[in-house]
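for the record, two folds in this file. i put them one after another cuz i was lazy. first one right below, seq on top, structure tokens after. the second one comes after a little note so u can tell where it starts
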Amino acid sequence: MNFKNLAMWGIIVLLTIGLYNMFKNPQGTMAQKNNIIFSEFLTEVDNGRVVQVEISGKNIKGVLSNGQQFNTYAPDDPNLIQKLSDKGVSISASPLEEKMPSLLGILLSWFPMLLLIAVWIFFMRQMQGGKGGAMGFGRSKAKMMNEVKGKVTFNDVAGVEEAKEEVEEVVEFLKDPRKFSRLGGKIPRGCLLVGPPGTGKTLLARAIAGEAGVPFFTISGSDFVEMFVGVGASRVRDMFEQGKKHSPCIIFIDEIDAVGRSRGAGLGGGNDEREQTLNQLLVEMDGFDTNEGVIIIAATNRPDVLDPALLRPGRFDRQVVVSNPDIIGREKILKVHAKKISMAPDVNLRTIARGTPGFSGADLANLVNEAALLAARKNKRIVTYQEFEEAKDKVMMGAERRSMVMSEEEKRLTAYHEAGHAIVTINEKAAYPIHKATIIPRGRALGMVMQLPERDEVSQTREQLHAQLAIAMGGRVAEEIIFGEDKVTTGAASDIEQATKRARAMVMRAGLSKELGPVAYGENEEEVFLGRSVARQQNMSEETARKVDNEIRKIVDKGYDRAKKVLTDKIDDLHKLAKALLTYETLTGDEILDIVDKNVYPKNKEDLKVEEDDQGSALGSIGLKPKIVH
């Protein structure tokens, strides 16, 4: 693109220089055609040397007595004809011929205007990305998919079986419409794929394109919106015109929330570009002029912001939920991506799937890719289970930052902080099992205790939520008990933030507050006002808001008290686990249970078993004095 721009500017400069040279001295070129000047011509006439002249307007051609021909230009001289007659010169006259201008002359005369138009077209193409030129504003940017290599089919889509069944029905209708019309049924006009990011909505659309065997157009919702009002609506019309020409066909609109948001939310009324585009889309999908054979499939992860008219029957009749996969779906997804790598026979994908609850399809693809990269970094020929475990920790907790320099005091504080989380987790019956604890900085955290549920869960009980609040407060409580209130750090800021959000959701959304009851009070919503985001509180009195705040504080304080009681009663386990973390840096959940319950340390590591008689000296050697607060 840069080379084309330079070439365009070079041509413009050369043409401008040529035009300047052509027009800078037109009199000089005319003077070269005049053999003699007018005064010399008069002298030759007076001397009787002019034999014959031919007058055409003010141009004079003639022949001298010696046979030489000449040209000259005569001004308005009324006595010239008389003078020539007196000298006996043969005179012939003719009117000035009005010759048609040549093609070059026309081009030269129109060159400035053509140059201006060319420059305008050039800049308009740059503004539009070069598609369609200056006259192509309203043309659709939809591209017809024609995948020969890398074709995606339903066999490449796993973990979303119900969603596949829904869209398979659309494909079958396109292949054999009589199968459904025989009973009077009609295929849905539109199909909306709804789900969180990374669950495979776009992949499912590509599979539809691979299986349908009909023209498949794809476009993004943002491709409709332009800086000029009316362009998006024109593109919608053009897109459906293309669809009619290739009917039956499928049109896939990715991220439709970019153009399908609810109307009237802003201050622009109904005249802004996005709302006009949405209006045209609504009319094309189900208006007077129906588009038979054109099926619209759209994808979004924000169905709550879409306009209600877009979701009514007759437009997007069917909403297909593409959710995060369960353990069976995760195993199938891992098998699909594992085909592309050389995997060791000891790798059990079912075990990996069990250890990745909540992972989306994109997360699992990233997990397999990270494992392959780690194996390649170690110069291995196959990917083993060890690489999968390291890749899982990297995806879930972030990359290790071993190069980060931490003082001994910071390491001790981090060890006790993470040990506090771990001890509370072990002693809370409703808590998830510990997957791993580490004091190696990962991502933006100095340390981390990772929990993994034993199975996929759709909802959580009140007991589980209170256990999570206590675990979140375990790090802060451990710092206060061991180092004292004056030495407490900001390391628990994220824990406190998450605990407060969880308590707020329990009170305002889940109705888990005994005082306020099962009432949803909602949360702050945001509106756009003159380009600024303004928080708008839903209908709630000041007294109710005060009760909500007090109830949130009670729930958080309850978690804090539970964590303090556990760590006060299990102070020896806290010291034991903190010292183990200082030495081992990373411990698995099973290793933590062995250390705390059985006083058994990992066999493949240095034996740090500390006898009860030596625990006091060991704590004294690192300069720590426990402080118990009742």
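(here's the note) second protein begins now
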Amino acid sequence: MSEILHAKLDFIIFENAQNHYVVASFEELGDYHEFTGAGRIVDPKEETEYELEGEYVTHPKYGSQFRIDRARMILPTKREAVVHFLSGDNFPTIGKKSAETIYETLGDDCLEKIRKDPHILSQIPRFPEKKIEIITDGIARFTGYNDNYLKLVEYGLSERQIALLEAAYEEDALKTITEDPFRPLYEIYGFGYKGALKLADAVHIPQDDLRRLEAMIYEMCRQMAMNSGNTYIPYPILQDRFKNVRPEAFEEALTNLITHEHLQSEKEKIFPFSLYEDEIVIAQHLNDHVFEVETVDPEEIDEKISEVEFLLNIEYDDIQKKAIHAFFDHSASILNGGPGTGKTTTVKGILQIAKTMYPDAVIQLCAPTGRASKRLSQLSDNDSKTIHSLLKWNLEDNHFGKNEKDPLDIDFLIVDEFSMVDTHLFASLLKALPPHCRILLIGDEDQLESVGPGKVFSDLIETNIFPIVHLEKIFRQSKGSGIALLARDIRDEKKVDFGDGASFIERKPEHILETLMKEVSAYDEDERAALQIIAPMYKGRVGIDAINAAMQQLINPPAPHKKQMKAGTVWFREGDKVMLQKNLPDDDVYNGDIGYISGIHDHVITVDFGTQIVDFTKDFLYYLTHAYCISVHKSQGSEYETVYCIVEPQTARMLNKKLLYTAVSRAKKQLFVIGDEKLFERQIRLKQSHIRLTMLKERIRAAQKNA
């Protein structure tokens, strides 16, 4: 039950200046009861009185505390607080003696009296006019700041949106958005189009104001880029989306956006986000990383390869040896290959040899997702990081700490699962590399492209800027080798065969869920932990949402000893398998990481991600989703002992060669495809109808030509 407390903030225990989250010790004004409060407080000040709205909760780690939903500074009334307030930094030249005189003359409510009628200060004997102005201005600023906050609440903005505005514009937030409510859309990361419209409506911007059309075009370009994966929007296509708008108005609005550099334009191509600059950065930096390296005797490399073969009890084929030589002969190279073709074994050899040949060199491994990075680390026996972690990504402002001004201290960079890397992320990575750093990019060009705009891996392969080694021979001979063979058949568009770990379970749509539940119920707890269900679509009778609900009921049903918590229409329960949907670099967990709910206490869900344990309050539950079944895109970069993949007619429009290839290649030992086998065989022949539009190849070739 929400309640309101009037309390003085005694001292700050913890403060995150980025998101305004504060833990502090408070003292109630009425009965002097001391308590700990936690929540968002903008610019918290010790020895200041607050009106706090929220409720008492019990945190699983820190015990009883008051959860602050809203905090508003109030003018102090008690003698000691008034004197401290008036003699503080906000009132220069007003000392303790002057403050005491004001209180003794005007009494307990002196500050509120001054706020209502500043002329009351004339009652203070021998009080200079300059000091009257300082006190009047200071109180006006203090109360105005609080009034601004309440006004933003009235506008319908969330606590998060208000925090973003106040962090960006400080005391001028209300003035800034009153003058132009669309500024935050262009200037503040995380402040969206809907929030800007709320502000525009609140300050009564006319419906025909050109700024509304500019914001709509801006948002449309961003959405089209994310939905299509294009780095640019062809002008005729964008123009067609606004065919019901007066042409002159559309042209003027688009021109304004380009003039103010909210969008970039080049030969009837409109680039949203920073994609125009990102492509140029990639082209220039890639060219800079093509340089002569010290020559290494090929025979010496061959000797080192033989030593590694003996050490690891393996035998490299000629193509793998070629990849190892390419790494040491060039400043940058690409290793491309499907599942079971020996990419990891090749990288192990490269690392072993590099450590002996360059003992003082810093070799850094990384991957685009947390799960891919952990997998790379486990398979290679070397430390690996996510690209975001390596670049010291800041969640709050979406900026990387590592860049040209503060580059990484590394000599060799190896990036795995490179097909998942989008244009902006690769540009950011290249900017942070020192000029001497050598690069190895590892990927599978037949997998799905990145979620973000671009097709960087395939563009690099087509430009042939670096030496490329394609691994094709299947080495996986243990249980599950049929999975690698199936993936190769899909890639080569041959007739597919199911065998040795790969099976198809033919079922009509109405029987898929029933069959899936029967199959999963046959596994013990450890086997289920190594099992993953993958489906292409969220909605539908056998979509991800329906499968997750059914699996939760089967694997982790309600029980008296299990606590649970509702978020929207979904129940989260102790023991549930869940997946993170956002990057949380401060907690070292990332989008796609999977864990289990280890505890639920007083509106806080604790998730064990294996290497990290993270608490989620109700406000942050949208960061989590159940993970008994996940999408093909979310599974990319991970491998599972056993995979069940759903293929049924309702999802036919989403099924194509790349998606199904990616799905089946997630399995290591057992793959079960459930559904319509004829549909599967037909859709694996279907190439993507949409080829992503980028200018990266042209920019790379131009940079090479001008070098």
